[in-house]
Amino acid sequence: MTTADVSVTTSGTPRPPAARTPARFDPATEARLNRLDHEATAHVESNRPERTRTG
């Protein structure tokens, strides 16, 4: 591999604006989503076979 100069060409068309980041949820929605996340994790953990957990 060489360290030759590699130029980059750009097209004349402008780039579309960057996607906006999603807004945060209100506190009640955040709390509900966190509770659902914890409940889902607990459900998966409690339904995992013991031999899988101890293996």
Give a quick summary of the entry.
With 55 residues, this protein is an all-alpha fold.
- C-alpha-based Rg, rounded: 25 Å
Globular, elongated, flat, extended or rod-shaped: what is the shape?
A: flat
Distance between the termini: 47 Å
Average per-residue pLDDT, rounded, comes to 83
Give the amount of beta strand, in percent.
under 5%
What structural class do you assign from the helix and strand content? mainly alpha
Count of runs of 4 or more consecutive helical residues: 2
What is the N-to-C order of secondary-structure elements (H for helix, E for strand)?
A: HH
Helix proportion range? 40-55%
Q: In this structure, how is the largest beta sheet organized?
A: none
Unreliable runs, pLDDT <50, ≥5 residues? none
Number of strands: 0
